[in-house]
Amino acid sequence: MNKRNARGFAAKLTLVASLFYPTVASAAPGRAAQWTRDIAEIASDKNEGRLTGSTGYLRAASYVEQRFRELGLKPAGANGTFRQPVAFEEQKVDFAKSSAHVVVGDKSVPLVVGRDLIVSAGGAPLPAHLDAPLVFVGYGLHMPGRGHDDFAGLDLRGKVVVVISGGPASLSGPEKAAARSNRARFLADAGAVGLLSLTTPHQVEIPWTRLMLLASQPGMYLADGKLRETSQGYQSAALNPQLADQLFEGSGHGFAELRDLADRSAELPRFALKARLSTAISASHKPLVSPNLVAVLQGADPKLRSEFVVVSAHLDHLGVGEPIGGDRIYNGAMDDASGVASVLDIAGQLAAGPPLRRSVLFLVVTAEEKGLLGSHYFAAHPTVEPGAIIADLNFDMPLPLWKLTSVMAQGADESSLGKIARTVASAQGLRLVPDPLPDRNTFIRTDQFSFVKAGVPALAFKFGFEKDTPEFQIEHNWRANRYHSPSDDAQQPGVLDSEAVKLDDFVAAIARDVANGPQKPSWNPQSLFKPIAAR
Description:
Elements: H1 3-20, H2 29-42, H3 55-70, E1 74-75, E2 83-93, E3 99-104, E4 107-111, E5 117-119, E6 129-136, E7 142-143, E8 148-149, E9 160-164, H4 173-181, H5 183-189, E10 194-198, H6 208-214, E11 219-222, E12 235-239, H7 255-263, E13 271-280, E14 283-297, E15 308-314, E16 319-324, E17 327-330, H8 333-352, E18 359-365, H9 373-380, E19 389-395, E20 406-410, H10 417-427, E21 431-432, H11 448-453, E22 458-463, H12 470-481, H13 497-516, H14 530-534
Parallel strand pairs: 6-9, 9-10, 10-12, 15-18, 15-19, 19-22, 20-21
Antiparallel strand pairs: 1-14, 2-11, 2-14, 3-4, 3-13, 5-12, 6-13, 7-8, 14-18, 16-17, 20-22
Helix pairs in contact: 1-10, 2-8, 2-13, 8-13, 10-13
């Protein structure tokens, strides 16, 4: 085919595609205003940051249920309701009664828990006492099938594993994410008793001073022990990088050397440390229940209506915490009231449109901030028949802070959903762009990954941005200043609601295509996450 004919053929394809996929210009002003109203209501101060299971969370849940009813959706939770109750145990570390030391020979250096050492209160019940030798394993990535294994030949039994952020240049971002997705279970199975993480200054996402404030919040884990990745006796923690040299005393290495190697994505040495980590952790525990919210738009095809496309986002945030600028309410307007507003917007579009062959579940989950727990529970115990879910399309902080010209559809290279997304993008004048910061592992840190682990192809959506662009700097500044802070509220400047609903148009078109398609989405043969889904 010559260039002229090729251009003509491409133009015809675009024209045909535009008949099936509305362009981004179709976004209605009324929808944008409703999207903003939904965020304002969900992220209102009266909901007190929507901590999982709190009165504020339940108040926000009631609002979402009201919106489901207004849109004509049917309940798809438990017992004919919109709710799926999920049982948790809350764990809160008492800093004043806890202590930690780095011990090298006869020298014991105290660490202040909550200031120098941040102990994760999620995952499983924390050990009251831990005293174990340390071993530095570089990036802590186990991918022998890809030619990289930081644990090869190491005896990890009874040890705390020390890792540093980043990964070697020989591995792609998705490869690194795939390796980290199963690290806690791998270490526990190998007999390690803990993980101690170091982040280089170059790779910091949230400043340490803000992490200290967030550390005062309770952690959670699922009451069902069979659904936990680790068991009691395993401890995960992060150390203030300014104190990292204490770990390496007498080892022949220093943090500056290892930090510089990590920031260059170079290969790292592995070696036993002279130091031990000793902790005494005092924690309180209490049971609580918090619901996932599930609504359904029933499909019209008698055979295919029993299959479900999921459109999801999380409702919970961080609740009331340590004040920043005198404000103690962590509203979570972009994280993730905006995602819930987009789920509602898409639900309205699909409900008002032509009947779909398959059914669509609109899932608003709890406890994402506590480790994807609500979505993990739903994926393990869906409110529909097991195996009936064929895809998940997830929103978590889409960040409509600039005009929508490109989309980050994480997971697009892993399944046939990527081909659908690219077709829709082309028809709507958009581009799909890769994650410019893959070492942040955002694909395994959002709720669609719970579906991936259950074998369901999934995509996660954000406004696209690329390195060395104004959008890259806007995203960086937002994370540095508003992410997981009280200033992520409904009054923050720069949010473009008219652009946000254009992304909703894009995802709604994908949902229609999957719901009406002749075949269910499938994993690509080379997918890095296919083996995870098969476990």
